[in-house]
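Closing statement on the zinc ion sub-project.
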Amino acid sequence: MRSHSQPISRLFDDPDDHLNVLVNCSFELVEEDGSLRGWHVAEGRAGRVARGDGHAMRLMGRVLSNRFEMSARVPYEWTGEAKGHLTGIVHMIESDRYLRSESFEHQSDGWEPFSWRFLPPPNAERAECELVAGDALVDGLCLDGLGSWDYEILDSQAGYHPRGSKRVIVRSREPVEGEVRWELFDTLRGQTYAEGMLEETGRDIWSRWTWIADLTACEREGNYLLRVYMPDRIVESGPIIIWRGVYEHLAYMVARYSYLQRCGVGIPGYHRPCHTNDALCRVTEQGEHYGEIEEYRDVTGGWHDAGDYNKWFHYYGYVLEALALVHKRLDLPRSTYGDPLPDVLSEVFWGADFFLRVQNPDGSFIGPVHGWYTHEDPETGRRWNSQWAIFWEKPHEDSGGGEVMNPRSRNFDYTSHDRPELILDFATALATAARCARGTDDRRRWTYANASLRSVAYLEGRSDPGIPAHPYWITLWYDLYKSTDRGEYRDRVDELVPAILSLQGDDGSFGRPTGLKHAFHHVTVLLELLVDEPDHPQRDEILSAVERNLEWMKPHTTGVPYDLVLQCIEGTPPGAVNSRTLGSNAWIGNAAYVYALAGRVTGRTEWLHRAEDQVAWLLGRNPHGVCQVVDAGRVHPGRYHGWTNWNENDLHGSLTGGIINGIQVVDDLYLRDNSPSWSTMPPLFPILSVRREDVPYSDHLIANARHDSNEYWSLHHAAFHQAMSALAAAYGELEVPERPRACYLYSNEGGYECATRCDGLFRICGWDVDRVASDTRYPHFDPRAYEAIVVDRSWAGGEYIDAESLGITVRHSFLLGVPWILLPPDDPGCLEWLEGVSSGLVPYGKIDRPGGKWVPCEHGRTRRIHESTVYLVEDEEGLSRLLREMRR
Ligand SMILES: [Zn+2]
């Protein structure tokens, strides 16, 4: 197979300008050296004629393009110029199944441009174009596969944290003159909340002009709409949500993905029970007994891995660590999985219980659990098992000469996990699970800790390079210490810290540790240690190593507007996008994690913001405007590569919380006729493909298996998950937990405007606020939760209601001594209401009407009602002074 740089699509114009070539649709046939040989004539004739300084095509017949890859979810535009009568046809294809065609007509006496737009169906994977003419001239063909929208707004579709980075990208297909204004419209209040000018960020590699609308300073929670005032029209975004819970929400949602991938049981709404009899071990030595069943061992449980039905549990250590981090760092108490434990903890135990099953008595582990498929080499007679062949458990994927076994018959082998870094990884996961079990389940705590130590003993009996100073050890010993309180484990950590730090190179990089985790692993284990022990004696050394590591990464980014951290590969120029630098989403999640964690430990918000720029790429701020985390955004790829596409056992069609491989640069090649090559993708062009089909596994090469784009994978999931736990925890700490909280009573007649009138004031005074509207039917609020109850000037009592339910709460607050602050009532009804409501039934009896009367004070007037001090302040200024004073 050959692949060469062939930008194409601009027929005859400037074949070297790939800037405006967004999908590699080509009518040209090219020689190996890149020179034009002609075009694919299906019928009649096509010839080259002079036009101006260049050339055009004279068509008397039918020409066909190559078969090219379609991008996800974008309307295409096919443009060009023609003279005469021309028909254009687009053939849309799913895998090798013809879906439909769409055709267009052009008719002109002179040269005229044409623009044909079409939206492929969601299952279109590839297409071919065709041109038909009796006698016409054609020139300047271009098929724009990134959308025919004139303007686009690309944002993080799950929303933004109030303190987070909120840089929304605006794109245009054409240059725009002059300054462009944006406004952030508050859809609850019906008012403009903020406005500003777009920052110009140049033309991106997808050939669009880009700007940033920086909403970072907008910190008020709410629902918004971004409006951009382009010279020719107003462009509006989808809903933009600013809310505190965004990262907890995403952490929980992504944790759910593991639950949905549980194997051996049914998951309501997702899949029926599967693999309830894993697994059979077969003889793998050559010989007459090859493939015979040797042993049955109960290794049910665990998780599927990449939306497939295999248990590639070499990834589970990472998944378990990511889940455990969520459990350790956040409080997500929801229990919906059918046991009384919090869901995330239940998932940690589910994973750790599986590790117990696959651990051998000596502390090593068995290999992956997967289908069994025998290949036989016809010449030598050698046989081997190809787990790939029935990756999806489709028996018909026989790529020749194989014997297909019952796909539910599972295999494991003893050998493939006898790799020290994997054993260490699993031992670490077990230590972490032991730590999580502490305080909840002592049987599990000791079982996991002992299992972990068993694997440690196994490793210590060997001498494997790269293992003694492996960063996993820090987590392993520290979590064993946390689960058992044994000081000697803690000492091990202190011995390891200098050893890990000494691995840092002069350029600040650490290199990749052996195993499956990421290049930042040295730094993240040390940072997590600082989260546990902020006063660690080597804090300064660790933080300086972190600083140098992040400094080293800095030049490796795409720059504005995407600010995506690229893989720092030796020998590639910093900032260059290619198939080695634009990593899969796991890489992007890893980068987000290290920045988020560094930001958390140091309190540097610019690092948190950098993390959020990475996360935004996954959540929709990318050239396709597609959210790559399933069900987390508004627009999704629409189709995923996974067993959901194949298996009758699937009930849902996608895996909520799953994260796909992502937008990738792939050097793919689709050959036709074995004749001159048709490259399907321009080199260096990142694409989000929705193909579900792999190439046959017999031809399996990473470079051409097109699940490159839309297959989920545990590693992406784990990386993103770690970033979410770090971001949520970081903002949780930045929130300053000692902020007092007020309950704000307001009249519903004034609407949301009334409810939020004092928001700025509360924020400036350092108070958080909850609200109770006068039309709330059941306004039970717990007065114990508040440092003050503030009554808006509009309040004249509850309007709906069972007045008594509010009355009990109010009276209770007077018994508890919670201060009340009233803005001067426009309606004296408010004061009357207070008189009336402060006596009557309380939770433990009845109280009388309050005595006392209003007396002047420095804030206005004050009065004692039962145990509480009540203030009637003069105005908002008075309220502000009082709130500040109460804070002190
Ligand atoms: Zn299963």
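Residues 1-22, 389-408, 668-682, 694-705 have pLDDT under 50 and may be disordered. With this model delivered, the sub-project is considered complete and its resources will be redirected to Aim 3.
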